[in-house]
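Researcher: I'm preparing a figure for a lab meeting and need a structural model of a single chain. I don't have an experimental structure, so a prediction will have to do for now. The sequence is pasted below. Please return the structure as tokens so I can convert it later.
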Amino acid sequence: MKKYSLYAVLLLFITSCSSDFLDRNPLDQPSNETFWNTEKDALAAATGCYEGWFSMDEVVYFDCASDNAYNPFPWENWQVQATGYATANEFGQNYMRYDKITRCNNFLANIDRPEMSEELRTRLTSEVRFLRAWHYFLKVTLYGDVPLVKEVLDIKNSNLPRTPKAEVEQFILDELTEIAPTLPDKYRGGDVGRVTKGAALTLRARMEIFKGDYAACAATCEQIMKLGYSLFQDYKGLFKIANVNNEEVIMDVQYVENLAKNSILGVMPPASVGGWSSINPTQALVDTYECMDGKTIKESTNYNPKDPYKDRDPRLAATIIYPGCLYEGSYFNSIDIKDPTGDYYAPYGRSKTGYHPRKYIDNLSDYADMWNTGMNAIVMRYAEVLLMYAESKIELSQIDESVYKALNDIRKRAGMLEVDRTVYNNQAKMRELVRRERRVELAMEGLRWFDICRWRIAEEVMPGQVYGALLGTVDAGTGALNLTDERIKVEIRLFDPAKNYLWPIPQSVIDATPAIEQNPGY
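Model: Understood. Here is the structure written out token by token.
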């Protein structure tokens, strides 16, 4: 809570940003010169850099840019990211703003001024350098070459061209390598939620695996695995407010009911319980979950397409609200086209795929008001580290006992069988397995788009017809399904590998900064 006690000071510290693309100095000169005096000033300024670093909105919506989910409302600015129709003027989300980086640069330019503990000065400096590296990670993975700005710019020097992607990536890696040893392994009390050594190393591992530097990623993951993190015992419980800041969480966005509230959870549930149904999981995601025998739905003799949710990986029921499941006291019915209260044909507040996310909203009674909660948004967790480690070792053709253990620990926690080593006994099959495990373990947590890009599989999984559930009826008393052969058709997507692996740079950015060139194809 310490950072929130500084909120009033923070509001005085942060002033309006420039409207220009690179957002030059966000403070007027006199206040910046008189502000940096005490330790309290430094803490408030660092807290200002945390403001908006990431959000629950992004955690839950980002899968809508991928084949995992569909966003039915164009005004929420996620649908166009997945359709292939994004342009410089209809670009959806904009991660090319530099206001947050400018805030970090301003902090780093002034942190030597206050009279304060050198230990705290070093720690805060490292936290802010992490946040700056985080923003550059998003930019370079979404847009490729981006301007690398490491200091507050004046008007004369603000029209910068794009820096080569490799140089930005190396900057991120160098920053994270340098700051990691200066950060604590863990925080306690009011400082929980600040950047730790584990967070710095996890972001470094993400950058390394995105670059395809598997040896470096495996080594970084080994460092994280020695820091004391572990898998939380209950997969579903990971995403409950009673278990925030558990032993699996490496980095999250902290929220406080009423004061710094999480106001986004209500976008996920169905209209029948007051939700908006803004995020609709796809059939492609549902089909990825194995059956309880450890086989895919194409391989398992236990799979029944007319009872498709039975005997499936428990993570399916923990992640997705599907037809016939018990949710908020009734059996969910999103597929009966004859039911006027059903979800399928209604224009607002209803799922267009027949599915809703379940993570974070498994039990709405956990919250007095789902639009005003203190539920934290998990951005990094230990299961991802184990998956990055396993994937890196597989790509290095070093499939040893540690790889199977990492995957088995995740599967057993979910209630699944261990890896069948008679089937998954070579690099190709293990690659298939670890990619499937990443998708189902981390579904609806905002990582799928980045995986699609680094694996270069988007032209296989993104274009074409997006499907939802089979239509039919749901028995209101038992949840039993009576499904037809008609499947919901959602939309047709395009994907051009020559351009769509990168997002378009907003035209407003190019207009404000002529040195910036548009990505190819836009």
